[in-house]
Amino acid sequence: MTPRGLWNISYVLYREDRIKSLQTALPTFKIKPNDSWCDNQTKRSYNKPLGYIVEGSDENLYRNDSLYDIIFVINQNKCPVIPGLGSAIFLHVSEKNRDFTAGCIAVSNQNIKKILRRCSAKTKIKIL
Predict the structure, then answer these.
(1) Farthest-apart Cα atoms in the chain, separation
(2) What is the number of domains present in the chain?
């Protein structure tokens, strides 16, 4: 379930092999082939990025599809991280012909690039 609230955007992750340049004032980091995000609430690394993949308990960030080519990391359940309160809540590219996600927010590739250009460190995202 997507968490309601007013959240900061921590930073943007992107696939350098697919996205040649980003126009944004937000901090950006490249997604590497073994990058993942911990979804396992029993682990100390819950709701944190990892530089390795653990099958079945992590969200692989280096996907074959284009959904995670650009990811806005939303500062939800970060300080402190509370197990079960939500993990890997992102703004990312949507799938064609699908208007829902497993808890993230998804928009078209065209719109995500517009949002990138308009965001700064002061930008907040409001989820209703």
Answers:
(1) 37
(2) 1
Of the candidates 86, 33, 38, 85, the residue with the CA atom closest to the CA atom of residue 62: 33
Q: Among residues of the chain, what percentage have pLDDT more than 70?
A: 97
Instruction: Report the amino acid identity of residue 110.
Output: Q
Q: How far apart are CA 118 and CA 128, in angstroms?
A: 21
- CB neighbour list of residue 47: distance below 8 Å, 6 or more residues apart: 37, 38, 39, 77, 78, 81, 86, 87, 88
Length of the chain: 128
Q: What is the reported pTM?
A: 0.92
For residue 78, what are the CA distances in angstroms to 7, 9, 61, 85, 87?
11, 11, 18, 10, 9
Find the domain containing 20 and state its range.
5-127
How far is CA 86 from each of CA 1, 19, 55, 57, 126, rounded to the nearest angstrom?
A: 8, 28, 19, 14, 16
Per-residue pLDDT reduced to its tens digit, 72-96: 999 999 989 999 899 999 999 998 7
